[in-house]
Amino acid sequence: MGSGRGSVPADILLADLGLVPRLCYNIFSFPSKGIYCEAEVIIQLSWIMSDTLKLFENELQIGALLFLTIVYTIRIIWLLRFKAREERTHAEGSASRGVGYSLMNIAMPWAMESTRRKPGFYAQFVIFHLGVAAAIAATFIIPYAPRLFEIRAVVRVFQGSMGAAFIVGIFRFARRLRTPALRLVSTADDYISLLLMILFFAAGVMAVPNTPWKSEWPLIFFFGLTAFFLVYVPFSKIGHYLYYPFARYFLGKTLGHRGVMPRQRRLIRDGTEDGQGSRSWH
Amino acid sequence: MRRKKIQASGIVNAPLETKSQVKARQDNLGSVAEGRLRTYDPSADNVRKFLDLLAAKITRPLVVSLTACVHCGMCAESCHYFLVRPDDPTMTPVYKADQIRRIFKRHLDWTGRVIPWWVHARRPKDDEDLNRLKNIVFGTCSACRRCTLNCPMGVDTALLVRFTRGLLTELGIVPEGVFNVSRDQWETGNQMAVTEADYLETLEWMKEEVQVELGIADVDIPVDKPDCDFLYTINPREIKFDPRSIANAAKVFHFAGESWTLPRWGWDQTNFGLYSGDDALGGYVARNVYEAAERLRAGRIVISECGHGYRSTRWEGYNWAGFDQKIPTESVVVTLERYLQEGRIKVDPSRNPEPVTFHDSCNIARSGGLVEEPRRVLKKVCADFREMVPNRTENYCCTGGGGLLSMVEYRPLRLEVARIKADQLRATGAKLVCTMCHNCIDGLTDVIKHYKLDLRVVQVLDLVSKALVVPSGEMAARS
Predict the structure, then answer these.
(1) Are the Cβ atoms of B59 and A85 closer than 8 angstroms?
(2) pTM of the full structure
């Protein structure tokens, strides 16, 4: 074992040179039989991965993704089988602008009283979903662009996102248990989905350093959970992102047509003359 | 973790009253005999019928609103019921919507059909369950759509409530008041059972009143006059309780030099189908108006100040009736604004010196898109206009919306949750609250009486009429 710089068997180097994907390690410690060299080395990461981990990172994910795609396709076909609403009136506004506004509504916390009055809750929403995005991105980066996670800062950003989302998830779970109004409507699906997400974030935090030579279990756990999610999500509340564009589309289309959306007009909160308020929104 | 005790409203146990339904059957009313107006049949398999209707009538936007909810609870504090009863979790919009959502999930959705307990999916067991559902969707929601605009997912809870009401209406499982008004509208073409004789007499009376008031003999309230610029449609409440609003309209139209008419038939722009969820009734009433406009070759349809009437006639009615809109259809407030902009009428705001605030009707602001038009008019005709907070599409319901004024069994809860409106009104310091909705007039009047507020309810036309400056030519003719 070398100290400071890593050591790899020379035959491994020879066997893997020129293959992709490759990782460049200059600090590397790998216990194995054979000749060790102290050098900057290029190896194929897949060499050091067990067959189980390879299966979890690749075939299993692809199979689960395929399943998700098929289920979502069937789901969308199912949804489109229900009759649409026919509009026979002249427009006052613009349906397309209404749809655009409605879809972007989530990025405009000032547009809704519910998010304006609860900036903390909105921040939680942002953090939670950034964590989701980071976790999903990690499931693609680890097998297909692993060099990105060689950059320590990137790993820290991903870990920070998912760690923060993990904490928000715990807050959300506590809120769901603590608030009578939420408890009354919460289903097993609501609780389990949230717990699974919390677990997913924790798994993501452990997996993104992507160091199978230290231990494969964080990666196997993360990818196992990902595959489970891909199969589970279409049947759970986590699949809400599939319905989000539809729901906001229909609302925006109807209210955009009527001129209710986009809301171009000023909202006065302090009751002063239009345009004179110290806190107003456009 | 300490759990708060749930203090649920007892309203969900209000019994189903069917005296009016029994009488309607005994009287063999045409609408009942022809199956347009449904009555409750306790011997029928109403649960099965409900489920079949659900599957047959559900539309894509409804399915999306039923599947998209994530139970985040963001809607709770947008609802005046929950704001006043924060310890009652059955008052949240999400709980109310979940009552139909769980049935949908059990009957039509994937997960709920396979593992119902996982998502709280459940079919109603019997008529008692359907009655409880009736009390929730009719008694604890004014369908104001405030929660819809505050839902991050875009779930249209008000649409779900109306849909559920419609299914129950098909079974006759409705509050007695809803049945009575629906019956009157089916039977007489207007929701207050105004006879043609009463209608014409009241118009004649108002014409004479305006003629005497102005001293001008040629002020007219024409009926069934063809080829006018517009067909004016009104709320039967104007005939029965508030005919001055027709007189005010006639006065303003006269000075604006307008060519207008009321129809002999098809004059009721209100539409109880919006409240009961009965699209067939909605289509029938709206079609009466559209056909009257066609018959008289009117250039446009003008709707008097009424929230649900505006929404029904301007927006929903064309779709319910399957009638393509051919001519412009507008609120009389838009007409008034046009007169002011074009200088067709002159007004003096000093004639309305009292502080005035404006209450946005839910159906007009959140479902109709008219928010600035009444304000622009009021700022021209009032000396002291002040906003209430929140306002426009964020304003609170008068608490009498959704047909609740006709449902006496829910009145105590309605007045209790009206506290939020009372506080909002009181904070303005205004002496007059103006609204462009007849339903809101009654709703706000109830709030004012119940909470002993020093306020009076007026409409835009009242204030415009009061501010109206009679042209010098007319003055000369009078003298």
Answers:
(1) yes
(2) 0.91
